[in-house]
Amino acid sequence: MAVTADAVKTLREMTGAGFIECKKALEESKADIDAAAKALIKAGVAKGMALSAKRGDSDLNQGLIESYTHAGGRVGAMVELNCATDFVARTDEFKALAHNIAMQVAAMKPQFVAVEDAPEDFEGSREDVSLLEQPFIRDQSKAVRDLIAEAVGKLGENIKIRRFSRFELGG
Predict the structure, then answer these.
(1) Is 64:96 a contact under the CB 8 Å cutoff?
(2) CA 27, CA 64: separation in Å to the nearest integer?
(3) Which listed residue, 76, 104, 114, 130, has the most CB atoms within 10 A of its CB?
(4) Rounded-to-integer distance, Cα 101 and Cα 24, Å
């Protein structure tokens, strides 16, 4: 089946990938847009993880602080999300990521950013209380770590959750 320009356009809007990448993914998936999107997202996550590992955390001195209030003002969260440049920090994608992570913190009550942040004497499942390992509330098929890796792949810059706080009335 031939790959149409409309199919490429639709796939680009869904994934944010480039024209050539979309065309190639559609050709490999025999013009199945859903299969091509999954392949591109998987490739974006892989690209994001590789980029993140390569660049490290030393240059992450830009970003933003996002807050979220839920449940009639009874639960709230603040998240510091860092990146390397203020250009990326001002993008809609970065702002949406920060908002989604703040919602995640409010909803899922993580205690640590990463598993390795838990103290040695911590009892219980570290994965359950680690923000990066929790399933994303809007798409249970991916962890918060995958969400960040996708954003790194799309934006071309390393991203890190520096810290967060969660507030609950009476808690």
Answers:
(1) no
(2) 39
(3) 104
(4) 32
Pick from 15, 16, 166: which is nearest to 101 by CA?
A: 166
Cα pseudo-dihedral 167, 149, 65, 55, rounded to 10: 130
Shared-domain flag, residues 120 and 158: yes
As a whole number of angstroms, the distance between CA 72 and CA 148 comes to: 28
CA dist 52 to 23, 57, 133, 159, Å?
26, 8, 16, 7
Dump pLDDT digits (tens) for 31-66: 888 888 777 766 665 455 555 555 555 578 899 999
Domain boundaries, position 40: 5-55
Clarify whether residues 50 and 69 are in a common domain.
no
Whole-prediction pTM: 0.70
